[in-house]
## 1
Amino acid sequence: MTGIINWNELWKTMMSGHKRRGDRGEDPGSMWDKRAKKFNESVMQHTERTERQITKLELKPEYTVLDVGAGIGRLTIPIAKQVKSVTAVDQSKGMLACLQENMEREGITNVTSINKRWEEIELGVDIEPHDVVIACHSLGMPDIQEAIEKMDAASKGYVYIISSAGRWMDGGMEAILGRRGRSWGMMDYIFFCNLLHEMKIYANVNIQDTEYEQHYDSLDEAVDRWKGTRDLPEEKEDALRAYLSGILIEDGGTLLYKRKSKNATIWWQKGDLK
């Protein structure tokens, strides 16, 4: 019996305005292709946050791991150092190119990349079941229940969804980013918990405090990075510059952007892996 709120239908309604595309009708894979290099420069620096997230995962040397929406490999690469192998699925060729570069730099050879949308992946054809399946801030599919059902089916042991808990960015930045900022609110952990409960998956939740820090050599670099990773229209550049100039902190000859937030690790166990 469906409850008062059909969480999957609510998700579809919220996603319908995006239509799997950017605000300018751009395919999301191509959109991330253009952002990949700047995204890579920003995200791969956050090793402490990554380490804290990985400590919440059940990883053993003999395990195989599937990373859904792996992107540049922020989690893929450190996980690969602890397990037998990792399969990285992502729709963006540009993001997977950065992943390959990061793997080569780290000497990682046990990662297989698949350049497909998760919706296009066929179990038993593209991939076989893995011991652990994870999606970290990457579940933006139009049918979220179908996406999670496939994750569940692809797992022999553990499934993990890492999401935001509460507001990911402050109201000032959300106002500048518009839909791009508000869309992060869809990814709040409580939505996934409600949907999973409706699916009769009674998941565990662990919430962590996290601190995001990013250093920039100049205000121009900060503006350029934010524009590149969020595909911000030119007409909003002045507002972004004014906002960043008011919140960036001088720190050892650089400008520091600092934000505190919370992450949630939602997980459930399917089998009895040893």
## 2
Amino acid sequence: MAKKSDGTARIALVTPAGPTPRTGNRISGNRWARILRASGHRVTALDRYEHERCDVLIALHARRSHDSIRRFHDLHPDKPIILVLTGTDLYRDIHEDEDSRESLRLADRLVVLQRKGLDELAPELHEKTRVIYQSAPASSGRPGNPERQFTVAVVGHMRPEKDPFRTAMAVRSLPRTSRIRVVHIGAAFGDNYLRRAEREAERNPRYRWVGEWPHWKTRRFMARSHILSITSQMEGSSNVLCEALASGVPVAAARISGLRGTLGDDYPGYYEMGDTAGLKRLLVRAESDPAFYESLARHCAEVAPLVNPDREILTWQGLIREVTR
């Protein structure tokens, strides 16, 4: 394996282009590039691999990076490939798409972003799979007085996998005494989503859609919210979950594998995916029952060490050493 004598490596990091530079996958790819560069490696960030000189290929997304993985393997059969698996990989594509399955076979190491990702992989793949939790630095901020307004943040672009209007639907018919207000941050991908968000905001006084914000502004707002609502139907992990945990913000979460792999099976803040009434009950209880809200905050604080940046840095450093020996 060719690498520099000082232990550093040339790394091609492939993150397929998305509809906006502020997708979760792009945020993850940028963070990994910073980690690897700070560790002394030379990192080239790419949308796709062509023939760039490198010692290691790291690719995000089994299906969308398949061409890059196949090309790198054909050109450099003796060099290692690390494949990071997304939610659509784990919970859809690898079960029905041959290109995705070939990416699994060609990769020397697989990375899942929470421990329950292993459950979706065939047992023979476990030996070459590593769990690397995504991380986030803390963001300062405190929520306002919940007696005046109980702020529920929804952070995510409008795509089918995110079930983006579930929280808005859940707060349409709350008691008049409720102080819950939902603020939705994220781009509308398509005219249908745009029109629906505008209609919802017009008809639902508890819902406000603000569009896409810069990452720093989104993080600051989230840190000042009382709770984050995550309604995704599939997640390989969740950057916004990591950011909420790092900032001490409790979450209301769909009971899906990609969130349970970080929060644990016993987290008290789950609702069943797609259950609008269940999410409504959860949010009302979080607003009105201080002991329950404190139990959410306490549990989130207990799992927050999983998203510590030092942990992610050390695991990535160890993986690169492992494949470049």
## 3
Amino acid sequence: MDKNIPLIRKLGAFIALSESELSFLASLHKRRRTFAVGSDLVHQGQPDQAAYVLDSGWACSYKLLENGQRQIVDFQIPGDFLGLRSLLLNVSDHGIEPVTDIKVTKICATDFLNALEHTPRLATAVLWAMSCDEATVVERLVDVGRRNSTERVAHFLLELGARLTLVGLGSTDGYACPLTQYLLADALGLSAVHVNRVLRQLREEGMVTFQNGFVDFDNYDQLVNFAGFEQSYMDKAGQLRY
């Protein structure tokens, strides 16, 4: 199996994958599906929901309020699990929609439980990966609650870069990013106008440029210091790998 597949790279950051574990992951990729922009992958409240692995493209998870307002909870990138929690809850507590056209691998509950039973090291890697994903959601709460708008956007762009680097799709130089200012605003509790103003400020101060679908880190270290970006909650992968 191609070891450059995002899921392989992500789980491989936590364990040195054996041939049997690679074979098991290869077997999961038999149930492939595609979803276009505008076609929800998962609806909030949907029962008996399967989980997915995002193979290519970007998606977002969101909550809908009774008044129709939406809050984006997180963005998913290649290698991420989608709706894994619903396998245990038997109902999806959030919606998931493609940000771009996406390709996913469907994971049924029986497959997931089989992995836990027969490949305990792989199950441990999944647990670590989910813990890192949860840590990013915690940081999003801190973004909205305690960081000012400029720090909030800077921290978010750095975090996305770290996540993409883990699966071979980014670096400290930058990364391709399909997110619009409206999506950023929805996720960070800002208006699109405010996001535009913040991005212009960060560009004029020589730290980061986000335009034409690409994030360029003009001065990565300065941006890290400005945002107070502490990557240790994502670096645990390399420290724990066995």
